[in-house]
Amino acid sequence: MTFSAALSPARLLTLLLVAAGIALGASGASAQQSDATPDLDRLFEELAQADDAAQAAAIEDMIWRAWARSGSDTVDLIMARGLEALNAQDYAVALDMFSTAIELDPDYAESWNKRATLYYVINDYDAAIADVTQVLAREPRHWAALMGLAVMFDDLDRKEPALGAYRAALEINPQLEDAAEAIERLSVEVEGRGI
User: Which of 94, 102, 107, 152 is packed most tightly, with the most Cβ within 10 A?
Assistant: First the structure.
């Protein structure tokens, strides 16, 4: 796998694990329930105004926890099994679990996100990008999906869409240092230096 110059291999792995919900122990993620929406809206407002990385990390954790509720015990169980398989690098089982979760609840954004992460890990960028598109259709504020999309575009030398995705992720979560660094690098490459 080729890693983006914008992210160290260790940071990229951490980002992928967080996106997969493994780092937080999440069993799924993307609260589609109407009662969770106001809390998510408030949390995203707080995230955009976070003063530092520690405050942002605490808010991110609350958002991931909200996203972890699919609203279905069955989907949650399938997602947990998929995450275990992904963590164990049993990609065939993980793919089966995430695909099953998508079939059971196609509106659950996090099942698409987990499968996108899996596709990224196995270097199937076309499938990963297609699944990220599904995530963002359901949860446009998913900064981790946007970061994943940006990294893939960057790896594929598609600098302009990479820059756009990094900017969108940073707008949602201004404490993303990797996004800020990538924007600085790519803005020169894409837009040139000012006079």
Answer: 94
